[in-house]
Amino acid sequence: MMLMVSVQNYEEGLEAHKGGADIIDIKNLQEALVGSAHPWLAKELRAVIPPEKHVSITLGVVPNQEGTVAMAAYAAGRLNATSVKVGFLNTEYGAAVSTLRASKKALEGTQTKLIGSTFADSRLYKGLEADCMVELAKEGGCDGWLIDTLTKDGRNLFDFVPEERLHEMVFRGKELGMSTALSGHLKLSNLDELARINPDIVGVRGAVCSKGERAGTVSWEAVAELKRQIELRKSGEILVHGGNGNGHANGWVVIDGTSQNCAGIIAALTAQVEKDAKSLIEVIIPDALNIYDVILWSEKRGHRLLNQRKEGKSVRVLVQP
Q: Helices 262-275 and 163-175 sit at what angle, rounded to 10 degrees?
């Protein structure tokens, strides 16, 4: 579970970086509901943020102009953004799919990933339902997706979509090999819910601002504390739910997931079972939160989780197909 911090200027970008944010997300909160920052800000931050750290660009709520959006995505690719987020509100589903496909084509020849985005509170604006996000991202050829909120009345993501539904969507996204991200006025008090859902990315702004609200400025100390709290849950020092499973079998295959995200681990498990449904599979998981998605993957497919044990900073989980 990576921490993404939204920034509006150069100084905030440096604060987010200093605090240990995994992703520096550049956007413009003063432009309409949410818009895109000027390209020179992305260029300046990409020049000083180490290449191994993610710098993403948010296009915001995009207009119903496919070529305009594709051109903006093209610019994000040429700025070496890690990813570009394309958000839809008052857009028909078919038009959104077409716009995403055009944006994907615009990114050819770059390393920039395409992220589709919808809003959990879209009903307030008579917009495209967030519930379609996974299928929209799949049909649009996205590398991942984000669900956010737009309302500024104090409500957040969980006021519009329940934890159970968010978990279903995140898990489905992982099964499809997509990165999954949740945002929307999230606070430190939401971390246990988020950890149970276990998206690849958690996006915040107000939670790491000096005044505790998005109108303030990003503070590196607040970023560092939120990052620390996330790591406590990833390491299992703060438990957010329990484990299960037992059984026995013979034959043995090891999947080393230490350099993979949760989607990669699940994809490797699925491929291994399709190739060999008899051997035991031991998977090495570096992030304790991913254990629960492996458990769910096993249960959904009728596999048995035999045991799990901690080894250093990793956890080894044994699965019988």
A: 60
CA distances to 4, 70, 82, 133, 265 from 46, in Å: 15, 21, 10, 29, 29
Q: 27 an active-site residue?
A: yes
Task: Give the tokens for residue 301.
Answer: 């497919």
For 252-320, CATH gives: 3.30.110.40
The residue from 27, 104, 174, 227 that is catalytic is 27
Given 53, 85, 105, 113, which residue is catalytic?
Answer: 85
What tokens were used for 144? Answer: 């991942």
Active-site residue flag, 18: no
The pTM score is 0.80
Amino acid at 201: I
Domain 2-234 in CATH: superfamily? Copper homeostasis (CutC) domain (3.20.20.380)
pLDDT tens for residues 103-137?
999 999 999 999 999 999 999 999 999 999 999 99
Q: Which helix (H) or strand (E) segment is 29 a member of?
A: none
Question: Environment class of residue 89 by beta-carbon count within 10 Å: exposed (0-12), middle (13-18) or buried (19+)?
Answer: buried
The answer to whether residues 197 and 316 touch, using CB atoms and an 8 Å cutoff, is no
Domain borders along the chain are 2-234, 252-320
